[in-house]
Amino acid sequence: MKKVILTASALLLIAGCRKYFGEKTDLSFIDVPQFTNREIAYVPILPAFNGFIKPVDIAVGFDELIYVADEGAQEIVQLDETGRRLGSFPIPGLRAVTQDRRFDLLAIGTADTVIAGSTFTFTCIYRIRMTGPEGYKLNPSNARIIRKIMHPFYYKTTYSNSDLNVQFNRIGVIASTNPAENNSYFVTRTGPAKNPILGPDDAVLLFSNNDQYITPVTVSTSQGTFNDYFQKPFGITTFAKPPQITARTGQSFMVTMLEPNSAIKVQNIERIESEFGAEYRPRFFPYGDTSKSDGGLHEPFKFQEPVGITLSGDAANFIFVVDKAKDSLYQFSGNGLEGVQPPAATGITKLQKASFGGRGNDYTQFRAPMSVAFFKKILYVADSENGRILRFRLTLDFD
C-alpha cells in the first residue's frame, strides 16, 4: 500500500463528498492513509459559512439545526448542516443563543424598561418559541418571544446603578430524567458588585425549566464552601448534547473564567449527591506527564481569554475551548489531556496535539473566535471578526 500524505486540499476534496459540494465522488483511487503524528489534525471543510457581520455564538440544537448569534446584525440565524439559511429572528443586544430539549431557543440580549419616567437598558434572557401559524419556523411572523428574564428583577424588586453593568454571558441546558429538572439551565453572569448577602454579580445561576430563578451555584472545596468561587465566568457547557436520544443527564458542567490573574481559567464542576445532600465540587485534571501528552487543560495560565467551550457529546468525549485573545482552538481528551489518541496500528500511545489557530483569515486561522460547537464529527467555530463560521473535521474521522 502506498503511503499517502493528506494535504489540506486533498482533505477538503474528501470533505466535499459529504453533502457539502453535492453528489458523492468516487474516491476509490485514493489509498487509505498511513497516519503519522503530523497527519492527526483538524482540517477545514469548505466553503466557510459567510454572510455574517459578527457571529459571537454558535449552537447545534436538539432539533439538529445550527443557530448563530450575529451580534453585528442583532439576529439569530438558523442554518441547516450545509449552511443554507432557513430563518432568522431579531433580538436587541444579542450575544448568545442555545436551544433546550423542548426546541425553545434561549437567547441573551438586552431589554429596555421605564422606571420613574426614565428608560434603562438591562441584560436579559429571551425564551423564543418557534412553533406558530406557519409551523416550525424561525422568523418574526411565526416565532415569538414568550418570556423575558431581565436583570435584576428575577431575584429582587429594585435596582442599583451597578445593575446596569451586569451581563448575562452564556447558557447551558440541563438534561434530566426528572421532569421537574429537565430543561432547567445554568447562566453565567458577570458584574461589579460583591454583595455579601445576595452574592456577587460574578456567578453561575441556576434557573428552572419555566425560567424561575433558583439559586447561584456555591462550590465546595477542602477549604470550605464559596459563593464567590467564579471569577468573571463566561463560557459554560453541560454534558447534554444532541442528538436528543443520547443526551447525557446530570447537573455537572464546565465553565470558563476571564479573570486575568486566575491561573486555571477552565474548570469542571461536578454535582455530587450523597445521603447528606448535593453539592458542587471542582474536579481537577492531571497535567505535566509528557509521556502521555504535551499539554493539559489545567496547566496554569494555559489560556488568556477562553470565551467558548463545548464537549463532543459522543464516544470520543473531547473537550474544545476557543481563546479569543490567542485566536486559537484547543482540543483535549475527556480527562483533560491535550491531544488525540493515534490509531492503535501506529504503536504510539502518547496523545498527539490537534489544537491550532493563530491570527489571520486563512481557513485554519481566526480573528477573535468566540464560540465552538460540535456535532456528527464536525467542529464549528464562530470566527467573529472575520464574519464567518468555520468547519473542521479530524483526519482520523475520514473514511
What is the fold's blueprint, element by element?
Blueprint: H1 8-16, E1 42-49, E2 55-60, E3 66-70, E4 75-79, E5 85-90, E6 96-99, E7 105-115, E8 118-129, E9 131-132, E10 135-136, E11 144-150, E12 167-173, E13 185-190, E14 194-195, E15 199-200, E16 203-207, E17 213-216, E18 219-221, E19 224-226, E20 233-238, E21 253-257, E22 266-274, E23 277-283, E24 306-311, E25 319-323, E26 328-332, E27 356-357, E28 369-375, E29 378-383, E30 388-394
Protein name: Lipoprotein
InterPro entries: 6-blade_b-propeller_TolB-like (IPR011042)
Organism: Thermaurantimonas aggregans
Structure description:
The protein has a single domain, classed as Neuraminidase. Helix content is 2%, strand content 41%. The chain is built from 1 helix and 30 strands. The strands form 9 sheets. Strands 1-30-29-28 form a 4-stranded antiparallel beta sheet. The protein is globular.
Chain-averaged pLDDT: 91
Counting DSSP E segments of at least 2 residues, the number of strands comes to 30
**What structural class do helix, strand and pairing data support?**
mainly beta
At CATH level 2, the architecture is 6 Propeller
Report the helical percentage: under 10%
Which fold name is given in CATH as the topology? Neuraminidase
Uncertain segments are 1-37
Our measurement of the CA-to-CA distance between the termini, rounded to an integer number of angstroms, reads 16 Å
Number of helices: 1
Instruction: Give the total of domains.
Output: 1
Lateral strand order in the biggest sheet: 1-30-29-28
Radius of gyration: 21 Å
The shape is: globular
Class, according to the CATH hierarchy? Mainly Beta
| The named CATH superfamily | TolB, C-terminal domain
> How much of the sequence is in beta strands?
35-45%
Largest sheet: 4 strands, antiparallel
Protein name: Lipoprotein
Organism: Thermaurantimonas aggregans
InterPro entries: 6-blade_b-propeller_TolB-like
